[in-house]
Amino acid sequence: MVTTVTHQRQRLFLDWTSASLACSIFSDARNWADARLLCWVLMPDHWHGLVELGSLESLADLLGRVKGKSARAINLAAGRTGPVWMPGFHDRALRHEQSVVKAARYLVANPLRAALVDRLGDYPYWDSIWLSAEDADVRSERRG
Q1: What is the CATH number of domain 2-135?
Q2: Burial of 31 (0-12, 13-18, 19+ CB in 10 A)
Q3: What beta strand segments (E) does the chain contain?
Q4: How far apart are CA 22 and CA 74, in angstroms?
Q5: What is the spatial distance between Cα 68 and Cα 127, in angstroms, rounded to a whole number?
Q6: Are residues 1 and 92 in contact, defined by beta-carbon separation less than 8 angstroms?
Q7: Phi, psi (5° rounding) for residue 124?
Q8: Which three-class secondary structure state does DSSP give residue 27?
Q9: Which of 128, 129, 123 is nearest to 142 (CA)?
């Protein structure tokens, strides 16, 4: 379970363009090498993810690359320079499948606890491998 925050906790992801760019990069499986992103949520000033590490790269290398790609895209789109993310991240290892699913539920419910929406389906910046095929239309609607 990983958390990384924006530089000086700026609420950059209240902006749809910045949030969409970050979501696109964080959710692209090609950016995770042999690791697997199980679920994630992008909040106005931070990102939470549940990552299953592979053997090719460390978590620090993976996050460094994804944060770097997202920062370049966001800065280019906004016509700005400077840091988007704070250096580093906070992580916590999970050991059992049951605790992984419980952590995923907790993680994606962050927008509800932050009172950003009344229903999770109304929040556009999250995803989970545990969404069923029937939920695919909800997933695509969120991404607009």
Answers
A1: 3.30.70.1290
A2: middle
A3: 2-5, 36-43, 46-52, 90-91, 126-128
A4: 7
A5: 21
A6: yes
A7: -85, -10
A8: helix
A9: 123
Task: Identify whether the C-beta of residue 13 lies closer than 8 Å to the C-beta of residue 19.
Answer: yes
Q: Which CA distances in Å does 140 have to 6, 36, 111, 124, 143?
A: 26, 20, 18, 9, 5
Strands 126-128 and 2-5: unpaired
In the chain, the amino acid numbered 15 is D
Q: What is the pLDDT of residue 120?
A: 87
The CA-based angle 51-54-29, given to 5 degrees, is: 60
The pLDDT of residue 98 is 67
* More confident position, 133 or 13: 13
> Residue type for 10, please?
Q
What is the pTM assigned to this prediction? 0.87
Condensed to tens digits (0 to 9), the pLDDT of residues 47-91 reads 999 999 999 999 999 999 999 999 999 999 999 999 999 999 999
Q: What are the tokens at 12?
A: 């950059």
The two three-digit tokens of residue 104, written as one number = 């995923």
